[in-house]
Each structure stands twice: as structure tokens, then as C-alpha cells.
Amino acid sequence: MSTPDSTSQPSLGDLVSDLGGDLSKLFRQELELAKTEIHEEAAKAGKAAGMFGGAGFAGWMSALFLSLALVWALDAAIDAGWAALIVALLWGIAATVMFVMGRNKLRTVSPVPEKTVQTLKEDAQWARDLKN
């Protein structure tokens, strides 16, 4: 009687060990993908925040100096109080426009790592198919 060659087929323990190692490697790769995606989205959010800050500072400086110039110019035609009110309303409109633009930019930031979620779904499907 011949005995099966034990070196040609891996044992059940070897298969389980290989599967555990593969799953561990897969988990590490998914974690790296998630980190990469989150980093990219954080960079986009940082740029949007910088735009908000820059818009705020530029708007403040512009409002300050242009308001003074416009109030003095309008003071020649109408009372200084009304001139200051008109100028304040104009800068309020400008601030609203900048806010809406910044908010729209911020809406493009996705807090969910979409690629990672998709690959995790694919991995789960692969594991189910392997089980069957």
C-alpha cells in the first residue's frame, strides 16, 4: 500500500495559518487605503478652511479701507450716517457671497473613505464566495 505524499499537499493547519496571514495582510492593506483616503480629504478640507480664513481677512481689510473711502465720497451727496449705512450693506452682501462660495467648496469634502468601503464590500463578497 502506498501512503500519500505529505509534502505535496498542505495540512489543514498550514491552510488555516495561510488564511490567517492573508486576512491579516488584507486588513493592513485596507487600513492603509483608508488612511490615504482620509489624508486626501483632510487636505481638501484644510484648503477650504484656508480659503475661508483668507476671504475673511481680505474682506475685513477691503471693507475697512473701501468703506472709509466710499463714506467720504457719498458724504458729499448725502448725510454721512446714510452713507455709512449704504457702505455697510454693500459689504454685507459681499460677505454673504464669500460665505456661500466657501460653504459650497466645503460640501465637496467627503468624510467617508469611499474606496475603502467599496473594497471592503468586495472582500466580504470574496469571503462569502470562498465559503460556498
From TrEMBL:
UniProt cross-references to InterPro entries, sorted A to Z: Phage_holin_3_6
Alphabetic keyword roster: Membrane, Transmembrane, Transmembrane helix
Pfam name, any one: Phage_holin_3_6
Domain of life: Bacteria
Segments traversing the membrane: 52-74, 80-101
The name this protein goes by in its record: Phage holin family protein
